[in-house]
Amino acid sequence: MAPSDSPTAVRALAELLDEHGPLSLEELARACCMEPGWVSERLSAGLLQAEPDGSGWHFSSATVVRARRLARLESTFGADPQLAGLTADLIEEVTALRQRLRQLESQLHG
C-alpha cells in the first residue's frame, strides 16, 4: 500500500472531496491526471461507479479515491484495467476488514 493509500490519507481525501460535492467526469479525470476517455472506459467496464443526471455523470468521493488508485496501479505497474480493478477491490476489502477488526477489538477491550 502506498503512503497515500493509508486509511488516514484516504479518509482525509474523501472528506475534502465531500465538501465540494460530486465531481463531473472531466473533474474526475483531472483529479486522476488522466483523460476523460480513460474515465469513460473504466466506467463502461464497470470498474468505476457514477450517478447519471441530465447533464452527465457525477462521481462520489469514494469513486475519486478508487479512480486515483486504478490510475496509479495502471501507471506504476503497467497493470491492465481489469487487473487494476481486481487489485483495487482487494485493497478495499482488506481496508474494510482491518477497520472491522479494530472496531471489534475496541469493543472487546472497551
Automatic annotation (TrEMBL):
It comes from the Bacteria. It holds the Pfam family MerR_2. This is Chaperone modulatory protein CbpM.
